[in-house]
Amino acid sequence: MISYARQTHDEQPEAAPPPVEEHIAPAPRVSVQAFCETVETAAAVQSAGEDRRLGKAHLKIQMGGMAAAIEAYRSAPTPNVIVLESDGRNDLLSGLDQLATVCDAGTRVVVIGRINDVMLYRELVRRGVSDYVLAPVGPIDVVRSICNLFSAPEAKAVGRIIAVVGAKGGVGASTISHNVAWAIARDLAMDAVVADLDLAFGTAGLDYNQDPPQGIADAVFSPDRVDTAFIDRLLSKCTDHLSLLAAPATLDRVYDFGTDAFDAVFDTLRSTMPCIVLDIPHQWSGWTKRALIGADDILIVAAPDLANLRNTKNLFDLLKASRPNDRPPLYCLNQVGVPKRPEIAATEFAKAIESQPVVSIPFEPQIFGSAANNGQMIAEISANHKSIEMFLQIAQRLTGRSETKKQKSSLLSPLIEKLRGK
Ligand SMILES: Nc1ncnc2c1ncn2[C@@H]1O[C@H](COP(=O)(O)OP(=O)(O)OP(=O)(O)O)[C@@H](O)[C@H]1O
Ligand SMILES: [Mg+2]
């Protein structure tokens, strides 16, 4: 058992999704066995097991609490994590002492209990319990507790994946993902990478005016070679904070990927890059579905017509159902106001989706067309264009961060910081 405790007793037990600022990194392939005393806790652990962040973990749930755990491990080896629900204090401590005699080294113990008392925490820490979570627990509390066992505290800021997808082809999903990633890198000063997952036809290379010799295909076709150094070599630098994992955009191969083809690439990017923007092509396959469900946040780009509305609704329904412990996806409308084209109003869209669009980006063929053909971002063509503010708004909503540029540019800010420090 390990010898530090993380106290989550001051957190809300409700099953509300975690705030966007809180980032829970997915757990690796570990075995987890839970011994519950109440059906409520068993149900919470069961739904936690269905959370995307525990997708790789193997979870087994049993009733019977401490007594069942001691009985179980008398003969069987212990898993990577044991989750124990316990009501009492003395039973708990004596039970843990007994369990310690049969526990394999490296097994971590998480206790779910009802006693909120610092003396008890101390006793638990002394016995090497990794985490104590106060009941009643919601699924996200269990997810958080298990995932945090495997993520170093200093790595917390690392690896948020943002998936961007169009509700239909050609609605501008790639354009928006590239401009939003630009805003994340420039205005929020976060290191970001755009991964162009449209291997055959992707435009990220064109949009950022990059022609890298290698890119994402080298990684996805040789998953065994994928590690941080390998991926680093495939990235091309667009700006100070922005890199690109480009698509080959060639047709000599076909790209019929298996469901988990991108897992190694995403896991590696997550371990080094604070923000990963996936430009997902508009298609429905095992791997696109997996990339969406597994992302930390999702942006759906839709044009204001009926097919986009239906598809957005279907995507929302599916993603909400598959991600019950996450906030719902975000969406934005794009290409709004094409002359003479009948459109569905943003209010109607919002009513049907039961969620407001983050922004409605107008149809501006002149500026978007020039940007696309020149290999530039909108902000490079027209520093004050109204869509730039919208890209920033999307960036802020997706990352949960606010702008840093303005604070930095203030002459007085170093002084203000100093005064604040005192
Ligand atoms: N707001 C806008 N106003 C005018 N043109 C736009 C706007 N947004 C995107 N476009 C243009 O629409 C075209 C399609 O954009 P983009 O390639 O980003 O769409 P997509 O949804 O990624 O398409 P695909 O389905 O091929 O992946 C591009 O030429 C782009 O410049
Ligand atoms: Mg695209």
Q: Name the structural class.
A: alpha/beta
Total separate domains: 2
**Biggest β-sheet: count, sense, barrel?**
8 strands, mixed
Query: How many DSSP E strands?
Result: 14
The CATH architecture of the largest domain comes to 3-Layer(aba) Sandwich
Helix % is 25-40%
* Rg for CA atoms: 24 Å
Low-pLDDT stretches: 1-14, 405-409
List the total number of helices: 18
The CATH topology of the largest domain comes to: Rossmann fold
Name the overall outline: elongated
Instruction: Give the percentage of residues in beta strands.
Output: 15-25%
Oligomer: single chain
User: Which molecules are bound besides the chains?
Assistant: adenosine-5'-triphosphate, magnesium ion
Whole-Å distance between the termini?
42 Å
Mean pLDDT, rounded to whole units? Answer: 90
Strand order of the largest sheet: 9-10-8-11-7-12-13-14
Which CATH top level class of the largest domain fits? Answer: Alpha Beta
At the fourth level of CATH, the homologous superfamily of the largest domain is P-loop containing nucleotide triphosphate hydrolases
